[in-house]
Specification:
Helices cover 48% and strands 16% of the residues. By secondary structure, the chain is of the alpha+beta class. Strand 7 (192-199) and strand 8 (205-211) form a beta hairpin. Helix 2 crosses helix 8 and helix 3 (57-79) crosses helix 5. The chain starts with 7 loop residues before the first helix and ends in a 7-residue tail after the last helix.
């Protein structure tokens, strides 16, 4: 490149890193996006402990990419005339427990002027694909719901193709995402909401519904435990290195540790690669044995030893085997149990 050349990519990449960071200071409330996360990480954040492993540049850009997809959905809902509000603050608190607060993505529904909406999407300088999407939304909803739509909270999550496939096939939401949405339903006193997963690769969507009452026990238990830990003087127990992915029906390196901002402080690993590298072979071995059990294959002595090791960390192994059977059945084209 000669001295007169310029680089758009450099400016773009650097600009995405210029974001206002939330000030780290002690707090006595839970962010809705933290529900379902590692208690030990949340405890340190609430105590304003500086992260030993702050987010890197790539992670920060991924956050901004997620906001782009939120904006696309917002534009379609707005042009279709069914966007009621966006980024509303929502609080909820059980008596004697910590307050939970956060901002929902979109509140949509109502009884729009469909004719006005039809005219709206043809105006402006929005991209053609947004106009086409809004047009299709208006056409479908105006014909099927002429009297309007029920009010829903929509939580937008952009994911890679592999995760999108899991959500699409199993029609199950990530528990962490479901608890976040459930909080907004509780705080807004709205009976239903949808998690909208967006595939980053091809913009396909899948919606998974959540209703009031569905996650009540898990929601209350999470807040109750965090309140108990917060009132104590010692940090909560560290996470176990191997977890179980209920969506995929497999063991996995615990993502709560992999992405922990306190990875070095709490677990002693320099970075995510070092941590995952240590447990990758163990997880692969356990999953091979789990697959054999789920498929009803005979067990070797080595398989039996692996099962003993699994049961030490997962006393509910029999329950996990049933989940694995169900997920494998669905992946092979069967209908979801229940």
């Amino acid at each position: 490149m000669n001295k007169l050349s310029w680089s758009f990519s450099n400016i773009w990449n650097e600009s995405l890193l210029q974001r206002e960071e939330r000030e780290l200071k002690p707090r006595d409330h839970i962010w809705a996006s933290e529900l379902g996360g590692a208690f030990i990480d949340r405890w340190y954040k609430m105590k304003a402990e500086e992260p030993s492993n702050p987010f890197d540049a790539r992670s920060l850009r991924k956050f901004e990419a997620g906001r782009v997809f939120e904006w696309i959905v917002e534009m379609v809902l707005s042009r279709a005339g069914i966007l009621q509000s966006t980024q509303d603050w929502v609080d909820f608190q059980y008596p004697g427990l910590m307050r939970v607060t956060g901002k929902l993505d979109h509140l949509a529904g109502g009884s729009p002027d469909w004719e006005k909406a039809k005219a709206e999407f043809s105006n402006g300088e929005l991209p053609d694909f947004i106009k086409r999407a809004a047009s299709a939304v208006v056409k479908h909803f105006s014909e099927k719901y002429p009297d309007g739509l029920k009010l829903l909270v929509l939580e937008i999550k952009s994911v890679g193709s592999n995760m999108f496939h899991k959500y699409d096939v199993h029609k199950l939401a990530d528990t962490k995402h479901a608890l976040q949405l459930y909080h907004y339903l509780k705080g807004k006193n709205i009976p239903e909401g949808h998690i909208v997963y967006v595939s980053k690769d091809d913009l396909c969507l899948v919606e998974i519904g959540v209703i009031v009452g569905q996650y009540e026990d898990k929601y209350h238990e999470d807040i109750e435990k965090m309140t108990e830990y917060f009132k104590g003087t010692e940090p909560p127990p560290a996470e176990q290195p191997v977890g179980f992915d209920e969506l995929g029906g497999r063991f996995s390196v615990n993502w709560k540790i992999s992405y922990s901002p306190y990875l070095t402080k709490v677990y002693g690993f320099k970075n995510q690669a070092e941590f995952e590298g240590k447990y990758k072979a163990l997880v692969a071995r356990w999953n091979r044995v789990l697959g054999r059990v789920a498929d009803g294959k005979p067990m070797t002595d080595d398989n039996k030893k692996a099962l003993e090791d699994m049961r030490k960390d997962f006393p509910n192994l029999d329950e996990l085997v049933e989940i694995a059977k169900d997920r494998r059945f669905v992946e092979k084209g069967g209908e979801k149990n229940g």
